[in-house]
Every structure is written in C-alpha cells, then in structure tokens.
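Consider one such protein record:
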Amino acid sequence: MEINVLNLSGKETGAKVQLPESVFGVEPNDHAIYLDVKLFLANQRQGTHKAKQRNEIAGSTRKLHKQKGTGGARAGSIKSPLFNGGGRVFGPQPRDYSFKLNKKLKALARVSALSYKAKDNNILVLEDFNFDAIKTKTYVKMQEDLNVANDKTLLVLANVENNNVYLSSRNLKKTKVINVTELNTYDVLNAGKLILTTGAVKTLEEALAK
C-alpha cells in the first residue's frame, strides 16, 4: 500500500512511502486483538482493593447470646458478617491481574490493528519533524492543517528524544503522542486517526515485518 507523505502544513511533499503488506495488509485476527487489549487493560489495574474479613475486624470474640432458644438465628461474635461493621464474606483481596501472552501473538495483534486502520484509510504519514519550542498552539495548528482537529488521534514518533512534540500535546483532549517502541494494540484501536512519521513506518517494518 502506497501513501503520500505530508508536511506539517498538510501539503503533499511529493514523496511516497510504501506501507508493507506484512504489517498493514494482513488478515486481521480479532481474537488476538481481544487478548492483547485484555492484557493491556489488566496491566493498568493496581489490584490494591481490600475488604476486611471477620478475622481482621477489631472487636470482641464473645458469643452474643446462647445458641438456641432465642427465636433468632445463631450468632457468634460481633465480627460476624451478619452484623453491621462485621467482616465481609469473600471480599476483594489484593491481587495481580496481569497474565502472559506470547510475543508472536502480541505482534499479530498489533499488525491486525494496523491493518484495520489501513483498510479504513485512517492512516496519515508525516515527514520526520520536531518542534523548536514547547507550544500547544503549534500542535493545534498542525492538527487543523491535517484536518484531524475533531478526531481522536495517535501520533507515533520515531525519535526517542523528540520531547517537545509530546510536551506540546499533553494538555489536549483526544490527542496522544507516543514513541514507536511504545505502540500497542489498544492505543491504535482507540484512536480515530493514526499519524505516523516516515521514521516510525521504517521502524515498524523492521520490528513487525516477517
């Protein structure tokens, strides 16, 4: 798939980049996408939820009344889950929600997500660039020139040290800027428009092409 390279003003530079079929033109695997997104969301969970069980509640362990003859239910101590302030039965405990996926499966999920974006013509390719200063106004103008101001966008940069672009965009809603090494299936699918630099395309080809 061949696509025109744009500059920051949204004009065609005359250059074209070839999006490799092995990365942007595969038959998407929906189950691989599901598993990778599930893994991403699971890894976001802190897992620090905690409710006290009856053995962790502070209080007396004295039996409140005799076992039989009261006309009511049997009751042990005030820490019983039957009473207000008592322990909770099977309450949430701290846990780790992460699980393991094979590298090949995660790679398949990424290329499947990228192929969906290419199939829907939701990919833009920009020439490599950097901002001289941290200015949100500059980033907003770039979005307007690219006609993506009203879309949820994901900009993927190739340069690890391209920090001015990231800092210029972090206050904007519906906008995310990442390095190509941070690309994941969830962010690709969550964005309406995927914006890649030419360097990022080359890196993706080297990392994911078979």
